[in-house]
Amino acid sequence: MTRAAAAVRAAVRALRRLSAPVAAQAVTAATSMVLQVVAARALGLAEFGAFAVLLGFLVAASAVYTGYVGDSLAVLDRHDAVVRGALVGSALTSWVLAAGAAAVTVVLLRGPDIPLLLAFSVLAVVWLVRETLRRLLIARMDFTRLLGNDVLYLVVTLAVLLVAASSGLTLTALVVAMAIGAVVTVGLGVLRVPRDELRDLRPGWQGMGRLAQFAGWRAAHATLRPVALLAVRVLVGVFGSLTAVGLLEAGRLVVAALQVVVNGAGSYLLPRFAAAEKQPERGRPDTARLAVVLAAGTLACGLVCAALAGPLGELLTGAPVPGWLVLGWSVYLAVWAAGLPSVAEVVARKLSRATFVVRLIDTVAGLALASVALAAGADVTVVPWLLAIGGCYAVVRLHLLAMRTRTTRPHDAPGRK
Question: Can you tell me the distance from the alpha carbon of 189 to that of 118, in angstroms, rounded to the nearest whole number?
Fold first, then answer.
């Protein structure tokens, strides 16, 4: 009974620690969904398509930026003068490149639309500045302030949208509202960050090579899953139809809440393992137990989603979704969740290249299986199951790598396998 009570208390403490990062992830996901609903209803189909492209640009830019700068804030010694200068230089370079790429995107999408071009270029920069503050709070494991900042962005953006809607909402007005929300969040976020995090913010180039050894592989890693999911959509469209692609995405939408929880857990685990590497006396989290808890919890909730796939599909998409498809996406997420603790532990030891290679093999294997199955005429419902098979390899390989490197921690060689 004593052991059971201790286990329950440990589970409750873990849930409390995860509640803020999961809530922050939920607010971020809700914000994206609200903006898309507003755009779809207020702008019309063509303008909504343009907004989807712009939003996709921001998501892709954030993924690469987070992998390069954001994760480095948590894993590397950001107070070291050389690393700090390289991080500042990388951030500034990224902001300039993002502004330029945003301008090119608008020109390709809409031609010389100067107001939209200027608004979206500014948004791209402040979006990454806001992401920098978010990742700094995550590195400090200050998830309460992170949640407050994310809620503030949602509230300010919606308030500006309500004002803009009175005179007719346009795509440019929507982008401006997002930019204003980001600027306000950044302004208040800077005031809430401890002063020692904002000292000596001078760019330096001396540590760029050292930073790139770790961060380059993390940025590449961050692109794998979005690229894989895009490739799956293309494969389903080529071997099936756009209707099949829609069905595949409907299945993912049903388990979107699970994705939020898994992402929130991931945002908590990396700084936790990084702190354990820097301060071993704090103790290292039990990777195996975390993997079991995350996978089992995700799968249990996934079973509920699969059982309710019909009504949930009707509610979210207007049409029922096959339970087998929803269960497949749930298994895919459970496998992904099972690998998160090992990924966090290995990356915290600066083995970012090794992690990327394992995830690359996982991605290629899953896509190859899906390609063969779809070419043979298999139903779209098998796709997430096949992607999960590749993920199983990554779970096992990364767990073994985490175990092997617990006695040899190459802090002096970031990125080395």
Answer: 24
Other beta carbons within 10 angstroms of residue 38's beta carbon come to 19
Cα–Cα distance, 337 to 266 (Å, whole number): 8
Tell me the mean pLDDT in the region 160-180: 87
- Contact between 250 and 316 under an 8 Å Cβ cutoff? The reply is yes
CA dist 359 and 395 (Å) reads 9
Confidence of residue 369 (pLDDT cuts 50, 70, 90): very high
> Would you tell me how many other CB atoms lie within 10 Å of the CB of residue 237?
15
What's the pLDDT tens digit per position in 207-252? 787 788 777 887 888 778 877 877 887 788 888 776 777 778 778 8
Q: If pLDDT is split at 50, 70 and 90, which confidence band does 417 have? A: very low
Residue 103 has what pLDDT? 93
pLDDT of residue 317: 62
The angle subtended at Cα 385 by Cα 384 and Cα 391, nearest 5°, is 90
Query: Where does residue 284 rank: exposed (0-12), middle (13-18), buried (19+ CB within 10 A)?
Result: middle
CA 251 to CA 257: how far, in whole Å? 12
- Whole-number Å distance between alpha carbons of 215 and 69: 7
The C-alpha angle with vertex 135 and arms to 129 and 141, in degrees rounded to 5, equals 145
Residues contacting 408, CB < 8 A, separation 6+:
none
Measured CA to CA, the distance from residue 162 to residue 177 in angstroms comes to: 10
Per the CB < 8 A criterion, the answer to whether 59 and 263 are in contact is no
Q: How far is CA 411 from the centre of its chain?
A: 26
3-state secondary structure of 377: coil
pLDDT greater than 80 at residue 76: no
* Contact (CB, 8 A) for 287 and 342: yes
Which of the two residues, 341 and 5, has the higher pLDDT score? 341
Q: How far apart are CA 156 and CA 177, in angstroms?
A: 8
d(CA 93, CA 209) in angstroms, rounded, equals 15
Q: Are 172 and 121 in contact (CB under 8 A)?
A: no
